[in-house]
Structure formats: C-alpha cells, structure tokens
C-alpha cells in the first residue's frame, strides 16, 4: 500500500508545533516508515510544494496575504487539513492584542518606520477562512496527541480527543488547586485538558495554552476570579494570551 | 445462560463478510463472528443489541436488523454518523471486526403470542423493527394481524422497501409506507403516502385493546406517537419503545445511557411505555 | 483466634512494619505541595494519621483515572496483562470504606468486571476512626466493618478489630505487639446521612437548579474526587505499528459530552446534567435504584470552586415527617 503523504508547515507562528514532530524521537523511524514526508520546510533542504497531500499539519495564525494563500494551497491540496496547535485553532499568541490595540499601532511598535510597507492583518484562526478536518490543540501540542492523530490516519479515521477541562486531570493527579488554595489566576476550569495538567503539577497556574474547553462557563470563571480579587483587566489580559475571542458573557 | 464475565467485556473476533448499500449513508453489513461466539448469540431476541468494534475506531451499540443466521452471521444496518460508523463504511469484505453481546432487553415476543402487532418505524428505526418483523413472520401462525407503518424522510431514504413489499405480498403483512417529502411523480413511482407517521396512524383502525405496538425512530417521533396510541386505547404496558442512548459499555457500568434511574443498556433498550412514562427526559 | 486486641501507640510503627508482610503498604500522606493523598508508605515518617480527607479517594486503587482496558493486536482484543500487586491500604476512614463497598456492588455484580476484580482481590483495607470536620456529614465516623481490620483510636492506643480472615491473619502476625481486649460491639454498616431520594425530586422546579446550572463551571472536580462516582468514558487509539488500545477514563456527568450521541445530546443543558447527577447520587441507577451513594465524606463540597452543594436541594424541600423513602 502506498504511504500516505504528509505536509508539515507553518504560517505566522514560532515553529514550535512543527518541532513537536522532531520531539517524537522514539517514534520518528516509525513515522518515516509509514508516511512519506512530502513537504516539510523545517526539516528538508529543498522543500518543494506538491499538488496533493494526504495529510497537511499546518501551524500558525493567518495574518498576511501570504499566509492566506498558503492556507488555501494546503486546503486545496490536502485530503485532511489539520489545524496544528493553538494558533491555527484559536489565533494564539499572535492574536492576543487583536481586541485591545489596532494593528497599525502594533506594527509601528515592532517595526518602526518599516511598518507601513508590511501587509499584515489581525491574526486569525483557520476556521475564519477554511474548514479543517481535525485539530490538535496546544502551545505546543502534546506529542501523544500528534502520534494518536498519525495512528488514527493510518487506521483510516481521526482521533477521539477528550473534551474535558484541565481541572479534571489536575484533580486526578492530586495536584494542589492553585485557584482555590493559593488564590492564583488559574484558567483550568475553562481550558481544554489533555495536557495532564502539566503546569499546575509544577505549581504554575493554567495560562490557557490549549484554548477554550467545550461549553466553557466563561462568565462564571470571570466572576470567580473577580471575587478572588483579580482585576477585570488582568483577567482579560491573561485569558487573551492564547485565545482572544472569548465571549465573557458565555455560560454554556 | 449467564455468559462468563470476561466474554461480556472482551469482544469476540468477527469478520465483515458482505455489505449492501441501502441509501447514500446507510448500508446493511453482514458480520460473521468467530465460532466461539455462536453459543452466546444463539439466545438473541429481536430488539437486543450488540457492541460492534471496528478496530482502531472503537465500539458502537447496534441493534441487528435480523436474528443471527444459523451460521451466526449478523445483519447490521448502520448509518454513517460518527467515527466508528465512518470507519465501518470504509470497510470491505474481509475486514476484521469484533463484537460483544447480545445485551439488553428485547421485544417480549413470547408474551405477544396470539395478539395483533403494530410496528411503527421512523427512518433508521426500521433496523431493530425489521428483526422483530422477520421473527413474527417466521412464526406467522402464532400472532394475530401484523402491520408495519414505516416513515422515511424521502423516497430515496426508505430502507428495505422492495423487501418489505415482497413480505407484504407473501405473508399477508399489512404495510403502510410514507415519506415526509416527495415530488408528486416520485411519490407515485414509489407507491407510498406523503405525510408524517403520526398522521398516518390517526386514520388507522386497529384493535387497540388487543394489540402490541412496537415503536422505533428518531426522538421526536416517540412523543408524537405515544399520545396517539394511548388515545386510541392501547395499554401503556403494550406500547414497546426501543430507545437510543449513548451506550459505551453495554453492561450497566459507564452510566452514559441513563434514562431517569434506569439504564438503557440493561433495563432497555426496549421499554414499555408504562416504565418510562413518568420520566420527563425519556421521550 | 483473636479478633480484637489493643495496640499501644508505641507499638504502632512496628505494627505497620508487620503489615508490610501482607503487601506494599500505602496510607494517607501529605504531598510536597500540601495535598492529602494515599501513597506508598516508603517511610513511616510519611504517614499522616490526622488527615481529614484525601483529595482523591481510594477508588484510584481499583479504578485508576486512566486505564488501558483492552489491547488490540493480531486481530483480537484482549485484556492487558495484569499489573496488580498485593497492597495494604492503611488508614482508610469509614466513609471511604463504605464507598468502596458501593463500588464493589457496582463492579463485582454480574458480569463481574475482571480488571476491577483482580485489583480488588489484591487490596487489603485497614480502616481507622476519624474526627469529622466542617465538611463531613457522615452518620457514623466511629467504625466500619467494610474492611479487613479497623483501628479505633483510644486514649493511648487503638482498639484493633479484625473484620475478615485476612484481618485475623494480620492480628496473628502482630500478636507480640498486641494485648488482649474485649471485642468491639458488632457494627452495622454506617447508613448514609442522606437517605435515598424520590426520583421526582430530581425534576423539581426549585429555582436552586437554575442557580446551580448558572454557576457550575463544569470543572469535574466533584466527581473526580467523589469516592462513589464511577462514570467512565471509553476511547480507542491506534499505534503507528497497527496495534491499538481501548482506554477507560473517569468521566463527569456535568460535561457536555456525557449525554451526547452522534447528532444530538440527551442532556443538552447544564441543568439536565445536574438533575442527572442528583439521580445518580441520591436515587441510584438500575440495580442500585433506591440507594443513595453519598457517604458523607464532604469532598464535593470542599473542592467545588463555586460552592455548589446538591444537598441543599434536599434540605430546602424536606419530605413530610415519615414521608421520606
């Protein structure tokens, strides 16, 4: 049987999601035996875009006309387009100021006089432009989720990822609840789990890198944090770090 | 016979031996279990279900469309709706599968002996009712009048149509087919009524005092039909509802399929209306 | 064979070391970050005898959060090879023992769950009396017969009572450390302080339902930490080399996915899920209908970030005297 072909690429992003593939050291050989890596600029000397991929794992937010045409290319060329990581899924880090600061001001701040020549628009997730077949969340994604996705693709299906919040895994690991016991600004209740509560397990509150959980009670989390003495500004700043498009009135 | 506990938890190996497309998203799959499973499957009642595994995808509850054949082969009528059924729909003969069962309650076919039976099926709900229907027709002389009313959304989505028409001709089955929507000529070509099942039932005269009525269909159908049936005088104990919930384990443990304080997998999936009428969320 | 004896405080360390002959010794400890949890008593310094409640109840020994239930290889599903080791769990409070007895009823009833049964057969339970705090609401903290051995604290030691033959063997092994004592009066299982509720109450129009539905953040802590919650989800995944595994993982009735089916949801709103929770906790499902599974450990109340306490739904509309079930 022909090996499924794989594209791994990025739009506006830090390449950390693509790096997840390299972090699968123990499984890399298996992956290369079972997939044809057709396009992977980060890992190839002469990457050459193809007309067809079975699976495209694309990271990053869409923030330039170039990003957009690349996204359309991957959508059109791929049987399965996977939004790879939080930026692709929710806009991520690059989009955190979308609501608070106009784009030109941000560009001026970073690029100074060169700003007016840049073609850039507020970073947005893939779903604003194309449909995706599956997503792996996380900043960066969990290695296990990537392997589960590749395994599922080989089996002819897509993986079933859990849809519970960080708190479930956090409690089950018998971590200290940083929100209740240490009064820290922890986003665990409204953030998609699957990370095995990595951060709270080491005493760092959940910063929300995996994006909103299904049916997040955002309004209640906000209320909870406000009553615990955090300012609305501080809460919104923290929540926007990885996902800017929260509906702060949403309860279900 | 109570099967050994491990067999209720570990699926038997099985193989897909054939498939027949019934509509664009629904097919009838013939599944042959390994010989070791035959003893368990021999006690199958119409309305019971199996947990079908498609390796790599997972497990789904399916109520077979007929009792197992003598060689243990099962006919499973499956619509492509999720990942497991999607994987099954990609499968060709020879594909390894696995199954556990039978689970749950079936239709009380022994108690129904001597009585007329009215079967009301909506959409994919025909699958478990076909199993009941074929059983009743195989023991035709033990039952009174047998009627099937079957509603589908449109003519192209009507499953087993030719087969049902054949059964009506050969076994004296009273068959009423209806579709929700159809272009006029299309409806004519299919020789069926246009309208909803509850409307069809409204004008139907039957021996409500003696009949057993079996219902299976999409959730809103039950609410509409139940009122009609009790209004016509069918005893709630004789209204048999085959309900669908999300069964994950099939044996009363995972608790996803609760209906009130009952579990669909072990107390059902066939319930008498009298058992669930007081549960607000049941229908 | 003695079935009860007196253990002086000074002999407790040696007594615990004696128990190690019966399996790996686990007991209540305090983690570095200050969480109370059952863990291996590698050193007796770790033992936290005065604990109130562990974050995760002993169910984790029988029914771990994430468990490979079946493996798929060579065209067949099978149980993974058993990994269960003989364990002595020391210092379990009466409420948690009652909860384990409930889980036994769930998982050891026909058809017995083979994975649970294997672990259960390897788990010896040593109970201990406790002092309730503000979160507790059990009816009888003093003792329990749902174990192999039970220690009741007395002024300078413990009254030790064997409740099974394994418990009697433990007493025998530790005979040198014990002095004879009159047996404790026979114990009846501690009734739950919340009697089984009429399912109709789960559908009441009490505005509290909406209030809870509005404030529940859906974090799942209540059921993760509940000693009798056992809903589980099942997920299958395939490895790169073709074999696969089917996982069981703790689920929570308040998650949207709990009542979902392809194309719909039978419990679409949070209020529907809270009602489900009430039904499961206080009314019981199917063979356990008419049985409350709340043991009064107080965990759900302690861990809920928004102070939801389903018991308020019972308290507010108390049944008429004598009318309760």
Spatial separation of the terminal alpha carbons of chain A: 46 Å
In the CATH hierarchy, what is the superfamily of the largest domain in chain A? NADH:ubiquinone oxidoreductase-like, 20kDa subunit
Main CATH class of the largest domain in chain A: Alpha Beta
Query: What oligomeric state is this?
Result: heterotrimer
Mean pLDDT of chain A: 96
Fraction of residues of chain A in helices? 25-40%
**How much is the average pLDDT of chain B?**
92
Report the structural category of chain B: alpha/beta
Largest sheet of chain A: 5 strands, parallel
Q: How many domains in all of chain B?
A: 2
- Strand percentage of chain A: 5-15%
Shape of chain B: globular
Per CATH, the architecture of the largest domain in chain B is 3-Layer(aba) Sandwich
In the CATH scheme, the class of the largest domain in chain B would be Alpha Beta
| Class inferred from helices and paired strands of chain A | alpha/beta
Rg of Cα set of chain A: 19 Å
What characterizes the major β-sheet of chain B? 7 strands, mixed
What order do the helices and strands of chain A follow? EHHEEHEHHEHHHHHH
Assign the CATH topology of the largest domain in chain A.
Answer: Rossmann fold
Protein name (chain A): Cytosolic NiFe-hydrogenase subunit delta
Main location (chain A): periplasm
Domain NADH:ubiquinone oxidoreductase-like 20kDa subunit (chain A): 14-151
GO cellular component, one term (chain A): periplasmic space
């Amino acid at each position: 049987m022909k090996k499924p072909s794989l594209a791994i690429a990025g739009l506006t992003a830090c390449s950390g999601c693509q790096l997840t593939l390299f972090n699968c050291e123990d499984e890399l050989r298996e992956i290369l035996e079972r997939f044809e890596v057709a396009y992977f600029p980060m890992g190839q000397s002469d990457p050459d875009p193809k007309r067809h991929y079975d699976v495209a794992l694309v990271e990053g937010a869409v923030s330039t006309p170039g990003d957009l045409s690349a996204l359309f290319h991957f959508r059109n060329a791929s049987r399965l387009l996977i939004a790879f990581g939080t930026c692709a899924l929710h806009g991520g880090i690059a989009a955190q100021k979308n609501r608070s600061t106009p784009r030109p001001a941000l560009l001026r701040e970073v690029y100074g006089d060169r700003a007016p020549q840049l073609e850039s628009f507020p970073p947005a997730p893939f779903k604003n432009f194309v449909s995706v077949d599956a997503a792996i969340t996380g900043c960066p994604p969990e290695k296990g989720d990537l392997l589960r996705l590749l395994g599922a693709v080989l089996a002819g299906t897509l993986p079933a990822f859990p849809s519970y919040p960080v708190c479930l895994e956090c409690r089950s690991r018998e971590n200290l609840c940083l929100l209740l016991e240490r009064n820290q600004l922890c986003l665990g209740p409204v953030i998609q789990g699957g990370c095995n509560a990595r951060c709270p397990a080491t005493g760092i509150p959940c910063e929300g890198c995996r994006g909103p959980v299904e049916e997040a009670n955002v309004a209640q989390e906000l209320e909870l944090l406000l009553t615990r003495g955090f300012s609305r500004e501080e809460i919104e700043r923290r929540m926007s770090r990885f996902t800017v498009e929260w509906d702060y009135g949403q309860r279900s | 016979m109570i099967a050994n506990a491990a067999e209720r938890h570990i699926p038997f190996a099985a193989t897909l031996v054939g498939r027949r497309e019934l509509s664009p998203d629904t097919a009838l799959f013939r599944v042959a279990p390994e010989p070791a499973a035959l003893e368990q499957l021999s006690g199958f009642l119409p309305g019971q279900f199996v947990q079908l595994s498609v390796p790599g995808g997972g497990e789904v509850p399916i109520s077979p469309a007929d009792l197992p054949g003598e060689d243990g082969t099962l006919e499973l009528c499956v619509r492509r709706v999720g990942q497991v059924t999607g994987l099954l729909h990609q499968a060709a003969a020879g594909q390894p599968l696995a199954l556990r069962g039978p689970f749950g309650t079936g239709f009380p076919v022994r108690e129904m002996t001597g009585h007329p039976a009215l079967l009301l099926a909506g959409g994919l709900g025909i699958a478990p009712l076909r199993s009941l229907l074929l059983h009743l027709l195989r023991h035709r002389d033990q039952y009174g009048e047998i009627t099937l009313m079957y509603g589908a959304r449109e003519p192209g989505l009507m499953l087993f149509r030719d087969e049902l028409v054949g059964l009506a001709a050969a076994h004296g089955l009273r068959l009423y087919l209806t579709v929700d929507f159809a272009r006029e000529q299309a409806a004519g070509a299919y020789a069926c009524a246009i309208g909803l099942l509850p409307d069809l039932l409204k004008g139907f005269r039957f021996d409500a005092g003696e009949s057993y009525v079996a219902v299976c269909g999409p959730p809103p159908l039950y609410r509409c039909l139940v009122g009609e049936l009790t209004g016509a005088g069918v005893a709630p104990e004789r209204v048999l509802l085959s309900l669908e919930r999300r069964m994950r384990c099939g044996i009363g443990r995972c608790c996803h399929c609760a209906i009130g304080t009952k579990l669909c997998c072990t107390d059902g999936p066939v319930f008498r209306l009298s058992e669930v009428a007081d549960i607000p969320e049941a229908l | 064979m003695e079935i009860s004896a007196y253990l002086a405080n000074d002999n407790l360390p040696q007594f615990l070391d004696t128990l190690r002959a019966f399996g790996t010794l686990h007991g209540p400890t305090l983690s570095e970050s200050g969480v109370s949890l059952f863990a291996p008593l590698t050193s007796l310094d770790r033992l936290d005898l005065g604990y109130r409640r562990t974050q995760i109840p002993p169910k984790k020994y029988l029914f771990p959060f994430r468990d490979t239930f079946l493996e798929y290889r060579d065209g067949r599903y099978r149980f993974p090879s058993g990994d269960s080791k003989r364990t002595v769990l020391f210092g379990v409070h009466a409420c948690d023992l009652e909860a384990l007895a409930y889980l036994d009823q769930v998982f050891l009833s026909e058809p017995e769950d083979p994975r649970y049964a294997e672990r259960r057969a390897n788990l010896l339970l040593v109970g201990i009396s406790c002092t309730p705090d503000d979160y507790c609401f059990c009816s009888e903290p003093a003792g329990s017969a749902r174990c192999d051995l039970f220690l009741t604290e007395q002024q300078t030691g413990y009254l030790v009572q064997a409740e099974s033959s394994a418990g009697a063997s433990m007493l025998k092994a530790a005979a040198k450390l014990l002095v004879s004592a009159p047996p404790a009066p026979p114990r009846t299982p501690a009734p739950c302080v919340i009697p089984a509720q009429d399912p109709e109450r789960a559908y009441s129009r009490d505005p509290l339902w909406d209030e809870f539905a509005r404030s529940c953040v859906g974090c799942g802590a209540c059921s993760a930490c509940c000693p009798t919650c056992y809903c589980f989800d099942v997920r299958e995944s395939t490895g790169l080399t073709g074999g696969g595994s089917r996982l069981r993982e703790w689920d929570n009735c308040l998650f949207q996915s709990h009542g979902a089916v392809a194309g719909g949801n039978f419990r679409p709103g949070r209020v529907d899920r809270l009602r489900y929770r009430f039904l499961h906790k206080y009314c019981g499902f199917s063979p356990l209908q008419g049985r409350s599974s709340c043991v009064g450990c107080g965990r759900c109340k302690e861990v809920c970030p928004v102070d939801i306490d389903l018991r308020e739904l019972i308290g507010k509309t108390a049944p008429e005297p004598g009318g309760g079930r």
